[in-house]
């Protein structure tokens, strides 16, 4: 039997994820998966736990993350695979995003209240288990507040299958009515942090944030080090999949598959439920990572986290050691 994979899974280190790393590994086994990657929003907190449980249960868990970024006015989600979760570059970026999110809570609540919605700070914090809140945590606090039950906007979104997400997209995301300016690093910065941390970068669900005519942007991201696109995802239509698969084939990029599983937050998405999720996708991803690592090693021996320089195989090369250049 062909084993399946899922390279885009959120744990409870994402403020909108439901399950722990251990639960996800157990669920992946039950679902008959061979490989997963836990790719949390601006967090690498559960990466090591995921790998540890993967080892125990004999499931391949690729270290990963999903980092928010912006480029030319577009909000882009960039997946990093094979990153060293202890690298100061990635740790610093995640810490800064969390700090910024926590500092915006009062302002975000005030703006939503001015918009006529009832919500309580305690509920927002409870929704994200006291992690840094995401838009969806505010939306959930609003949706669950009885006082909003007759609000026609909430009524409308409550009827939708993915109402919470649709509400966030229409009212809270960058450029929308209740958006509070926030720290979103540039895609250049995120791509370079992923590479410095020893990983390869793949653009998550391109059709969500880009129009099909935005291929110039894709080309620029590739110039900056992007190695592939997440073509098969619960967010894409068949037309999107065909378009981006064709783009990858023409440009020599790899494609990946991920469900973007979150648990209750995306009730219609289940673990491993994504098309073309065969192990060949992992092999191609691994090959791209190895090729990039070899290139970097050639350019600056010893600079890649986790790799051992050929000329100094006895030297310490502990992940997270700060013997490598920062930039
Ligand atoms: Zn995403
Ligand atoms: Zn995601």
Report the sheet with the most strands, covering strand number, pairing sense and barrel closure: 7 strands, mixed
Rg (C-alpha, Å) = 20 Å
**Unreliable residue stretches:** 308-327
Number of E-state strands: 7
| Secondary-structure arrangement, i.e. CATH architecture of the largest domain | Alpha-Beta Barrel
Structural class: alpha/beta
Query: What is the class of the largest domain in the CATH system?
Result: Alpha Beta
Helix content: 40-55%
Estimate the mean pLDDT confidence: 90
- Predict the CATH topology of the largest domain: TIM Barrel
What is the CA-CA span between the terminal residues?
45 Å
* Number of DSSP helical runs: 13
Can you tell me the CATH superfamily of the largest domain?
Answer: Metal-dependent hydrolases
Overall geometry: globular
Q: Bin the strand percentage.
A: 5-15%
Ligand catalogue: zinc ion
Total number of domains = 2
Q: Write out the strand line-up for the largest beta sheet, numbering strands in chain order.
A: 1-2-3-4-5-6-7
Along the chain, the helix and strand elements come as EHEHEEHHHHHHHEHHEHEH
């Amino acid at each position: 039997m062909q084993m399946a994979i899922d390279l885009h899974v959120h744990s409870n280190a994402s403020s909108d994820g439901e399950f722990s790393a251990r639960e996800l590994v157990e669920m992946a086994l039950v679902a008959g998966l061979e490989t997963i990657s836990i790719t949390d929003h601006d967090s690498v907190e559960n990466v090591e736990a995921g790998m540890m449980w993967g080892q125990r249960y004999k499931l391949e868990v690729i270290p990963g993350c999903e980092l928010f970024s912006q480029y030319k006015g577009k909000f882009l989600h960039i997946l990093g695979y094979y990153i060293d979760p202890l690298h100061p570059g990635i740790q610093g970026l995640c810490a800064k995003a969390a700090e910024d999110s926590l500092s915006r809570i009062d302002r975000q609540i005030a703006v939503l209240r001015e918009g006529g919605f009832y919500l309580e700070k305690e509920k927002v914090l409870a929704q994200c288990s006291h992690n840094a809140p995401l838009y969806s945590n505010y939306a959930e606090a609003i949706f669950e507040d009885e006082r909003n039950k007759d609000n026609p906007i909430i009524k409308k979104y409550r009827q939708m299958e993915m109402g919470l997400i649709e509400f966030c997209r229409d009212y809270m995301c960058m450029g929308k009515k209740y958006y509070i300016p926030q720290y979103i690093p540039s895609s250049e910065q995120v791509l370079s942090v992923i590479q410095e941390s020893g990983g390869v970068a793949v653009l998550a669900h391109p059709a969500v944030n880009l129009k099909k005519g935005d291929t110039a942007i894709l080309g620029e991201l590739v110039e900056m080090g992007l190695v592939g696109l997440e073509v098969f995802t619960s967010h894409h239509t068949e037309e999107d999949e065909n378009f981006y698969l064709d783009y990858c084939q023409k440009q020599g990029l790899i494609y990946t598959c991920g469900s973007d599983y979150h648990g209750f937050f995306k009730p219609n998405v289940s673990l491993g439920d994504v098309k073309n999720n065969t192990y060949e996708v992992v092999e191609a991803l691994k090959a791209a990572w190895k090729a990039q690592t070899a290139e970097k090693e050639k350019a600056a021996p010893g600079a890649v986290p986790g790799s051992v320089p050929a000329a100094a195989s006895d030297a310490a090369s502990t992940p997270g050691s700060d013997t490598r250049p920062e930039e």
